[in-house]
Amino acid sequence: MVSSVHYNTSILVPIELSSVQMRVKKQKRHRRAVRFYTACFGFRDPFKVLCDGTFVHHLIANRITPADTALANILGATVKLFTTRCVLAELKSLGASYHESLNAANNLIMARCDHENRRSAVDCITEVIGESNSEHFFVATQDADLRRSLQKIPGVPAIYALRNTLFLEQPSSFQRQFAQSAEEERLHMTDMEYNMLRLRKKRKLSDDKEGDSSDAQEEEDDVSHVFNTNVKRNGSDVKDKVHFKRKRAKGPNPLSVKKKKKSADTNGTTSGKESKHADGTASVGKSFAPDWLCNIRRNFD
């Protein structure tokens, strides 16, 4: 007798779906973070990733290789891996247990740090990043204190690893607030730009006065409507809408007007065609016989 075995799949399916959903959500978070840095801070692919010794050692210990492919998967674009001479010196000082990590770090591109004497990797990376991260580096590190300090610098994304999985940190509230304030500043006109525009307006008006004073007055009225948007009403400043002067039609385009046709001859004669008189005689073209010859013809008829 064969016994049938029934598997309860109601427990397995939710676990499998939850892992897939978590993976999809993580990818969406990474894409949103990358879009934020590309749109607000000008990051462009291939992305540059600055790695310290702790991150390189974690990649080697957990066999996350090749590293550039793993980083490209979370960033969604090709990457270039960088390190510094101070990081290499720190790995070398840690002894034989970090020998494999040192060999892997030697294959990375060297970022310029200009340190004659060796410094710690944290100080070196902090100085390379600076105050604005002008080189647009992604910093890959396992140091939590370094990641927290980088969150206070605008435009510095951080990458870390947990076991055999890589993560991209979400932008901090400081970085989001900095990007929003920078966007608001770009929308407003600076004092220097306003002064340049005012000088250009004066120069334009002076040139128009020499040629045509009426056109200059219209230009001045149009510019005044653009800049003077605060109008006093009943003793209070009320922000009014900008009103522009409408341009009136000056006439049809002569190139689009149909040409007039020539009027027909009103003398009652047709050129080159035969015409009949009242008495039945015919004449051709514009040549007519004299009156005395016509009388003779009538007598003969």
Structural commentary:
A hairpin with a 2-residue loop joins β7 (230-233) and β8 (236-239). The strands form three sheets. This protein has a six-stranded mixed beta sheet. A two-stranded antiparallel sheet has the order 7-8. It starts with 11 loop residues before the first helix and ends with a helix. It is of the alpha/beta class and 301 residues long. The chain is elongated. It is 47% helix and 13% strand.
Broad shape: elongated
CATH class of the domain at 12-171: Alpha Beta
| CATH fold-level assignment of the domain at 12-171 | Rossmann fold
Category from helices, strands and their pairing: alpha/beta
Kindly report how far apart the N and C termini lie.
140 Å
Rg from Cα: 43 Å
| Overall helicity | 40-55%
Number of helices: 11
Question: Mean pLDDT across all residues, rounded?
Answer: 77
Tell me the total number of β-strands.
Answer: 10
How is the biggest beta sheet arranged? 6 strands, mixed
| CATH homology superfamily name of the domain at 12-171 | 5'-nuclease
